[in-house]
């Protein structure tokens, strides 16, 4: 029964409904939060969201080998609508 | 200086020549003697002037048009000149020979250089026709358009503007000629009138030719459809259109052919007529002015026919797209209009000259003409603007074929179609029901808002009705299709994205590695063993095959499946048929029971306890949606099954995630782990306990005792359970149920035949529990376990005080002593901080006192009795 109900990719996302998920977005952003709803465009509604934004600062005129500094900004939102065109990845959070 | 070289000859031959000079009497041509001794100097005496317009008046030096019937003209003069001396027959003949001479010699070059006003006119019935031998026109291939197209014989293409300019010039010249002719005598005017008549005839023909040309252009234009339409669409409407167009084109083509043939016949007839006319002219010398009416007669009907045909064509054109029509007809119309206006003007002028109208009348006529012109121009302008507007609006007409439109309609309709409209907008319906009940309306029958009740804007009831019917039909069709598709839903998507070539998708990929998977065999064996055990019944639980606990993904998959079933069951409940219909009720009941059975199996409650740790059911309760599923199940599966479920839950209580993870809640509250456990705990308290509460509230004492005992037995350390909020809540639930039963018995509300035995049993279990718990009483309080003081700590302590109160109610007096001794510190601490004002606010103080009082009241005490 376990595998017979999985017919399309969205069935896998359905499994994560009302679970905490990790979402990777375009623009170096990541979200973790509880997934409440999704649709065919991968629009998501999430609650209790923590957003992580990677800010990569490339120093002007720096030699190519020099690594850019990466700043991480975080913010929390109680409820969030995520537009589907920015979604790259939806996965259950890694469990330790 | 003579205008007509021929005339000198005529005059000479008619006898005058003998007087001009004897020396050159025998010469064929005029002999001039400038510079010779015998030159009489008459050339100098000639008045050289007023010759400027000679060309326009009499035609250029090159070829003359075809319609100068000088025979008639000169013959009219002849009686005066020759006084019947010379025979008219003799006079006419050489003239006609000379006149025809340049025509016969027509070359392409000379046509091009032809300056005469009539050179712009078609030669179909004139010189041109004479150029071609008649035989070629009756070739065995009369349909060949190349042979018969007047355009091709015109010696190069000409634009409308050129033609127009030439026409204008011709008209101008015509006017000039008319003006010059004013000075001529009556006879000459008559002659001019005849010429005009001929000219008008010619012009009519010219117009016909122009229209035909435009028609041809038009049909060519139609023949190249817009690129979008090139692929022939399957839409019936479109095919019709195209067929219409083709038919029209064919018709037009046939028309052209017929017209050409008629032209040829006409030409022949005209030639014949001309010959006859000449003969007539010869015989009826003095009736010159009127003989042109004969000429019109034979050609009249043909022209009328032509015009009628063209009008038909016009009408047919008009029945087509307005954009096409107006765009293409406009220049034609304007050209026609100008021609008409010019003709009118000329006619007016001519009439004026002819009738010798007064100056005032002339003015009036001119004003009238001007007014007409202006009005016509305005109308034309208006019409053109309108046409342009329509063309602009219909720019994108027919961009979409009918099948495109059908396709889009199908998409839209498919969004409307649903097997169950009520379920589809379930939330809207529920919200509507709530709203209605809030407003006090109890209209259950208006559950679904009917289509069209709102009324369309500007649509009559008829149109509305028709639209409704149409939509209904479309929807039912789409629904039927949907159902058909549903029968083989898997196949419906087969090949939707195109077919994969080859057989690779049918055949399994070639196996490259041959590795035996021992686990699958083992798993299968286990499965078989388990199945056999299950069929043998639960008696052999000792032989239960242990399995790995469900993986998280399995749990989630099962839960989603269960939710599906729950939704179906709920829908089924809404669709419950009337009790009168036995057949339907039975069917419905069967289906419903089947669904409930699925639910029950899905919960895995009956799976033996030892199968795995955690038990599958406990695993299912781990995600928050698993916990939330339970309240939705309880009303379907019945209370006896719920009791089984509760028993399992109690037996596996320590396996629950909320119990195992509970210590996290004593840690710092700013971690993700804390938040997660807190969320799960809230879900458990709110969902699972709430759903078992009504069941427990109806249990007999001995059942409660059994459950209580089971909980203690199955828990390695009962204090650990009591230290968790779910555990504490469950214990409190059991204790309070016992108290309720006791009170009911005490008041005699319930008969208790086995009361004594049950009470004894209960007390034994309780004493055991109390003994186990006593050493840990203080640690039950979160405030004692959590180091940093939390603001809401009293709220967290509250359930503990409640539990202790319930405990105190069941305790015997000796146990009260133990309780008070153990909790004395905690009680005093709370009362002191409340009384001494060591609290943040009034609310906290009240909470502390209320908490303490909960417990003290159970002992028969009160916080106010405590004085420090």
UniProtKB/TrEMBL annotation, chain A:
Sorted UniProt keywords: mRNA processing, mRNA splicing, Nucleus, Ribonucleoprotein, RNA-binding, Spliceosome
Ranges where the Sm domain occurs: 8-96
PROSITE patterns membership: SM
Cross-referenced PANTHER family: U6 SNRNA-ASSOCIATED SM-LIKE PROTEIN LSM3
Family to which the UniProt record says this protein belongs: Belongs to the snRNP Sm proteins family.
Subunit organization: LSm subunits form a heteromer with a doughnut shape.
This protein's GO CC annotations: spliceosomal complex; U4/U6 x U5 tri-snRNP complex; U6 snRNP
Amino-acid biosynthesis is among the record's keywords: no
Pfam families: LSM
Identification of the protein by name: LSM complex subunit LSM3
Coiled-coil regions listed: none
Compartments where found: Nucleus
Gene Ontology MF annotations: RNA binding
SMART domains cross-referenced by the UniProt entry: Sm
InterPro entries in the record: Lsm3, LSM_dom_sf, Sm, Sm-like_LSM3, Sm_dom_euk/arc
Keyword DNA damage set for record: no
Function: Binds specifically to the 3'-terminal U-tract of U6 snRNA.
Organism, scientific name: Roridomyces roridus
GO biological process: mRNA splicing, via spliceosome
UniProtKB/TrEMBL annotation, chain B:
InterPro entries, per database record: Pat1-like, PAT1_dom
Region entry Disordered, spans: 116-156
Pfam families xref list: PAT1
Superkingdom classification of source: Eukaryota
Similarity comment: Belongs to the PAT1 family.
Lineage, uppermost ranks: Eukaryota, Fungi, Dikarya, Basidiomycota, Agaricomycotina
GO-annotated biological processes: deadenylation-dependent decapping of nuclear-transcribed mRNA; P-body assembly
GO terms under cellular component: nucleus; P-body
Locations listed in the record: Cytoplasm, P-body; Nucleus
Coiled-coil stretches noted in the UniProt entry, renumbered to this chain: 160-191, 247-283
PANTHER family, per the entry: PROTEIN ASSOCIATED WITH TOPO II RELATED-1, ISOFORM A, TOPOISOMERASE II-ASSOCIATED PROTEIN PAT1
Calcium is among the record's keywords: no
Domain mRNA decay factor PAT1 stretches: 36-862
Keywords, alphabetical: Coiled coil, Cytoplasm, Nucleus, RNA-binding
Organism of this sequence: Roridomyces roridus
UniProt protein name: Topoisomerase II-associated protein PAT1
Main location: cytoplasm
Entry GO MF terms: RNA binding
């Amino acid at each position: 029964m376990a595998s017979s109900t999985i017919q399309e990719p969205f069935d896998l996302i359905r499994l994560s409904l009302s679970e905490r998920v990790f979402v990777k977005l375009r623009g170096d952003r990541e979200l973790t939060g509880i997934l409440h709803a999704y649709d065919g465009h991968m629009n998501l509604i999430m609650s209790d969201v923590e957003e992580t934004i990677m800010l990569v600062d490339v120093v002007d005129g720096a030699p190519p080998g020099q690594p850019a500094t990466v700043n991480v900004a975080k913010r929390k939102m109680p409820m969030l609508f995520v537009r589907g065109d920015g979604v790259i990845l939806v996965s259950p959070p890694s469990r330790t | 200086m003579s205008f007509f070289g021929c005339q000198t000859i005529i005059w000479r031959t008619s006898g005058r020549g003998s007087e001009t000079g004897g020396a050159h009497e025998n010469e064929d041509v005029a002999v001039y003697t400038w510079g010779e001794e015998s030159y009489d100097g008459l050339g100098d005496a000639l008045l050289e002037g007023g010759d400027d317009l000679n060309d326009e008046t009499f035609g250029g030096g090159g070829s003359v048009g075809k319609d100068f019937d000088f025979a008639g003209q000169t013959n009219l003069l002849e009686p005066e000149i020759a006084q019947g001396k010379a025979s008219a027959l003799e006079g006419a003949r050489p003239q006609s020979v000379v006149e025809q001479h340049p025509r016969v010699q027509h070359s392409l070059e000379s046509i091009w250089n032809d300056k005469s006003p009539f050179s712009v006119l078609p030669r179909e019935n004139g010189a041109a026709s004479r150029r071609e031998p008649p035989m070629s026109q009756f070739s065995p291939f009369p349909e060949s358009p190349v042979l018969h197209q007047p355009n091709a014989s015109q010696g190069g293409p000409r634009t409308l503007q050129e033609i127009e300019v030439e026409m204008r010039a011709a008209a101008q010249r015509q006017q000039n000629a008319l003006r010059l002719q004013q000075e001529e005598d009556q006879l000459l005017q008559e002659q001019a009138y005849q010429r005009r008549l001929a000219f008008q005839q010619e012009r009519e023909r010219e117009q016909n030719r122009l229209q035909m040309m435009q028609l041809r252009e038009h049909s060519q234009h139609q023949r190249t459809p817009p690129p979008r339409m090139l692929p022939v669409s399957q839409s019936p409407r479109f095919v019709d259109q195209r067929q219409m167009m083709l038919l029209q084109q064919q018709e037009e083509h046939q028309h052209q052919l017929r017209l050409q043939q008629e032209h040829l016949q006409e030409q022949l007839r005209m030639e014949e007529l001309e010959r006859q006319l000449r003969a007539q002219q010869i015989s009826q010398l003095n009736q010159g002015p009127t003989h042109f009416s004969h000429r019109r007669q034979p050609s009249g009907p043909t022209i009328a026919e032509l015009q009628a045909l063209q009008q038909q064509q016009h009408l047919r054109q008009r029945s087509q797209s307005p954009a096409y029509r107006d765009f293409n007809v406009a220049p034609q119309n304007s050209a026609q209009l100008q021609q008409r206006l010019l003709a009118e003007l000329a006619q007016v002028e001519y009439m004026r000259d002819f009738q010798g109208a007064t100056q005032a009348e002339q003015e009036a006529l001119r004003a009238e003409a001007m007014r007409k012109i202006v009005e016509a121009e305005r109308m034309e302008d208006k019409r053109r603007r309108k046409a342009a507007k329509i063309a602009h609006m219909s720019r994108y007409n027919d961009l979409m074929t009918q099948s495109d439109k059908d396709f889009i309609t199908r998409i839209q309709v498919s969004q409307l179609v649903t097997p169950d409209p009520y379920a589809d907008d379930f939330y809207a319906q529920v919200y509507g029901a709530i709203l209605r009940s809030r407003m006090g309306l109890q209209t259950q029958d208006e559950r679904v808002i009917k289509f069209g009740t709102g009324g369309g804007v500007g649509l009559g009831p008829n149109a509305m009705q028709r639209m409704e019917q149409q939509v209904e039909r479309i929807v039912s069709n789409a629904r039927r299709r949907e159902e058909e598709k549903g029968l083989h839903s898997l196949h419906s998507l087969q090949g939707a994205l195109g077919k994969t070539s080859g057989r690779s998708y049918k055949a399994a990929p070639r196996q490259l590695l041959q590795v035996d998977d021992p686990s699958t065999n083992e798993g299968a064996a286990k499965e078989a063993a388990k199945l056999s055990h299950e069929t043998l019944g639960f008696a052999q639980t000792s032989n239960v095959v242990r399995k790995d606990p469900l993986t998280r993904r399995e749990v989630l998959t099962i839960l989603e499946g269960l939710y599906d079933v729950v939704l179906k069951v709920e829908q089924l409940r809404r669709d419950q048929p009337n009790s009168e219909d036995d057949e339907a009720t039975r069917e419905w009941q069967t289906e419903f029971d089947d669904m409930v059975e699925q639910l029950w199996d899905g919960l895995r409650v009956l799976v033996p306890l030892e199968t795995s740790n955690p038990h599958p059911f406990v695993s299912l309760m781990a995600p928050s949606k698993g916990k939330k599923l339970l309240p939705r199940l309880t009303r379907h599966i019945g209370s006896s099954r719920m009791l089984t479920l509760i028993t399992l839950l109690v037996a596996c209580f320590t396996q629950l995630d909320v119990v195992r993870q509970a210590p996290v809640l004593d840690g710092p509250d700013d971690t993700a782990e804390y938040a997660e456990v807190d969320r799960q705990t809230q879900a458990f308290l709110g969902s699972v306990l709430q759903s078992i509460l009504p069941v427990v509230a109806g249990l007999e004492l001995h059942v409660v005792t059994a459950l209580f005992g089971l909980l203690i037995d199955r828990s390695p350390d009962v204090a650990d359970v009591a230290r968790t909020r779910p555990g504490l809540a469950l214990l409190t639930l059991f204790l309070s149920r016992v108290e309720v039963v006791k009170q009911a018995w005490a008041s005699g509300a319930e008969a208790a035949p086995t009361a004594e035995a049950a009470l004894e049993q209960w007390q034994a279990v309780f004493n055991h529990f109390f003994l186990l718990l006593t050493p840990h009483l203080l640690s039950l309080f979160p405030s004692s376990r959590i180091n940093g003081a939390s603001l809401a700590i009293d709220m967290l302590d509250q359930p503990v005080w409640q539990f202790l109160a319930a405990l105190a109610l069941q305790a015997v007096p000796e146990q009260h002593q133990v309780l008070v001794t153990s909790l004395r510190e905690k009680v005093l601490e709370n009362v002191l901080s409340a009384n001494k004002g060591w609290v943040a606010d009034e609310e906290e103080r009240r909470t502390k006192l209320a908490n303490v009082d909960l417990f003290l009241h159970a002992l028969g005490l009160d916080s106010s009795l405590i004085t420090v």
